[in-house]
Design a protein that fits this description.
With 236 residues, the chain is an all-beta fold. It is 2% helix and 44% strand. Strand 3 and strand 4 form a beta hairpin. The longest helix has 4 residues. The mean pLDDT is 88.
Length: 236
């Protein structure tokens, strides 16, 4: 559905588009990117273009991609739209202006083993965000049969490499604040533990402990020394 121009809360009865006759299944998410409205569906990615005067039209960008995790969709400036699908992490690049083409490419084949741990039935609970400050895209998803996000993948844009985040990052929902820091809610909510309440930050701070004063968290000074042990593989 689309609203009247300038009045986003007012809709005409005939201002809608029916996709039921097009292959692709149900709509799982919508995302605005340049001049396009990306329509993520169970079996494809469609795009809606046009305007209120000349009308809107829908075309299919790519068949065979299932994105059931709309909260993982994010824009990486100068790169494109990144998102988690059932079979990996994809980047959508380009525009359809002036005859240009849109390219959709899977970039996570190098971590196929990690992607295979995704619980596809709970992908709607996956969450992701991009930080321009850290030049990182974080995505957390249910894995190994769990129904809450338990595993995370970080795409380091500058180096084009991935790293993995385990249960030490109990991310249930994720966003980026105006300073570019990742803010998340605990994947278990209250859970009966005070440690699981409220909002948390993912940062590169290396603080030497914390204290509380008048309801505020006070960071201790960062550690300045470095300790290095002899090499030990701990039997592995």
């Amino acid at each position: 559905y689309w609203s009247y121009p300038g009045t986003p809360d007012t809709f005409n009865q005939t201002s809608f588009m029916d996709l039921s006759g097009r292959p692709g299944g149900a709509i799982t998410g919508l995302y605005s990117y340049y001049d396009m409205l990306l329509v993520f569906r169970e079996g494809c990615i469609d795009v809606v273009q046009g305007d209120y005067i000349s009308g809107f039209r829908v075309t299919t960008l790519r068949q065979g991609i299932t994105c059931r995790s709309p909260n993982t969709i994010a824009t990486i400036p100068d790169v494109g739209v990144i998102f988690l699908a059932e079979d990996g992490i994809y980047i959508l690049r380009g525009s359809m202006v002036g005859g240009s083409e849109v390219d959709v490419k899977r970039i996570s084949d190098v971590i196929r083993g990690t992607i295979d741990r995704v619980n596809k039935d709970a992908l709607a609970r996956a969450t992701g965000a991009y930080s321009q400050k850290w030049k990182e895209y974080h995505v957390y998803f249910p894995a190994d049969g769990e129904d809450i996000p338990t595993l995370g993948i970080v795409f380091h844009v500058e180096d084009l490499v991935f790293s993995i985040r385990s249960a030490d990052f109990p991310v249930g929902c994720l966003d980026v604040n105006l300073n570019g820091d990742f803010i998340f809610g605990h994947n278990k909510g209250t859970g009966g533990s005070l440690a699981e309440h409220g909002l948390f930050v993912i940062s590169k701070a290396r603080q030497n402990g914390y204290s509380s004063h008048a309801g505020e968290v006070i960071r201790a000074a960062p550690v300045t020394s470095v300790w290095r042990s002899p090499f030990h593989d701990f039997g592995r």
